[in-house]
Amino acid sequence: MVHIFTHSPSVIQQYVAEIRDKEIQKDRMRFRRNIERMGELVAYEISKHLSYEFREVETPLGTANCQILKNDVVLGTILRAGLPLHHGMLNIFDKADNAIVSAYRKHTSELSFEIQIEYMSAPSLDGKTLILCDPMLATGMSMVAAHKALVSHYGTPSHLHVVSVIASEQGLEYTRHHLPQDTRYWIVALDPEMNAKSYIVPGIGDAGDLCYGEKM
């Protein structure tokens, strides 16, 4: 199942407009905060599709029968651009365990590259709900490589959710062909194409640079 948030009206449309705006992008703190807020909104929507169980909770005046999240959630993110999105989702899934993957494009020529995984840290994923997030889903190769690396080292989750702020149509199709069939995709905005350097168009530019400054 694929959820595209900008296909229906909501305040998230305003946040998308601001992260795209090249003038507002000059304010790094606002850029990061908008990504974080979108993470919070997406996490809330994901929470509607998880499992819950009833527990009795003692209040100062009696007992209440409350629904408590049943899933063991692991939030996974791809460094470095994924950090604000991850933090926003962690604000909602505050008891979640966390998985971190360092992945980057290792260029073999000006226009071609392969995805290099350098570092990972994660709990056991066996039987858990893995929510894997990256703000930009361009080719989809980083997301697929990160999932493959996590599963090969830490076990197989029972459910997989993929979260992205801006995705290309090509990247979404690539991940749908290479990730488990029952994966749920949560895409804030879907853009039509990529340029010759595999950057999403119209996109936002380099999310990592906009969050944390240009890299060498």
Task: Describe this protein's structure.
The chain is of the alpha/beta class. It has a single domain (2-212), classed as Rossmann fold, CATH 3.40.50. 32% of the residues lie in helices and 35% in strands. The chain has 6 helices and 12 strands. The protein has helices at residues 12-20, 28-47, 83-92, 141-154, 169-178, 207-212, and strands at 2-4, 52-59, 62-69, 73-79, 97-107, 113-121, 129-133, 136-137, 159-168, 184-191, 193-194, 200-201. It starts with a strand and ends with a helix. The model has no long low-confidence stretch (mean pLDDT 93).
List low-confidence stretches: none
CATH topology-level name = Rossmann fold
Helix content: 25-40%
The biggest beta sheet is recorded as:
8 strands, mixed
* Overall geometry: globular
Concise overview:
The chain has 216 residues and is α/β, with parallel strands linked by helices.
Provide the fold topology.
Layout (H helix, E strand, L loop, with lengths): L1 E3 L7 H9 L7 H20 L4 E8 L2 E8 L3 E7 L3 H10 L4 E11 L5 E9 L7 E5 L2 E2 L3 H14 L4 E10 H10 L5 E8 L1 E2 L5 E2 L5 H6 L4
Parallel strand pairs: 1-10, 4-5, 4-7, 7-9, 8-9, 9-10
Antiparallel strand pairs: 2-3, 5-6, 11-12
Helix pairs in contact: 1-2, 2-3
Q: Which keywords apply here?
A:
8-stranded mixed β-sheet; Rossmann fold; 216 residues; alpha/beta; globular
